[in-house]
Structure formats: C-alpha cells, structure tokens
C-alpha cells in the first residue's frame, strides 16, 4: 500500500522534480566537442598570432567557403591559426597546398585574411 501522507507525497514530488532537473540539464549541456572547441578558441585569443602581416606562408587547404565579400575563399591553418585566402584560382581545391600572403587580422586576432600567391 502506498503512503498517502501529504508530507510523504510532497517529498516524493520534490525528489522526482530534482531528478528531472538533473536529466534536463545533462541533455542541454554542451557536448565535449563543443567544450573543447570553446577552450581552444579562448586559448587562441590569448596567444600572439604565429603569422606576420606581409609575410607569405605555405599551408594545406582544409575547405573552400563563401567569404562575407561574396567570393569563395580557401581556408587553411598555419600552426593552428586560421587563414582565409582570397583571389584563389578555380583549380584550387580541398587538400591542395598553397602559398598566401597575410593582409590583415580579424578583430580578435584569431584569424587573418590573405591573398593567394601560388600553389606550393
């Protein structure tokens, strides 16, 4: 027979609500990948860029994407630092190794815009 005391029923209801709250929080929490990405982003904002304005760097293209300017750009990394390379010819694709000259940094200095110099 189940207890019908209002105190026992109230205590059981509170326990059920606490368990549901814990389950919902776990389901809504960021994934471990999202937490790692946030940690890496925060660390990137604290370090000096490994590239210098006006210098040319060689790197592999990790993806092609649309830039805010509307043109397609090649994305790649130099020591984990992201470069968005403009003025790429049509034959450049993912996996190609290219050279690009750094033109400017973004506001947080966590990435830079560059211009295509040639294939490596």
From TrEMBL:
The protein's UniProt keywords, in alphabetical order, are: Membrane, Transmembrane, Transmembrane helix
Q: Which domain of life is it from?
A: Archaea
* Chain positions covered by the region annotation Disordered: 29-51
Q: Basic and acidic residues bias located where?
A: 33-49
Ranges annotated as spanning the membrane: 6-24
| UniProt name for this protein | TRAM domain-containing protein
- Name its species: Halorubrum saccharovorum
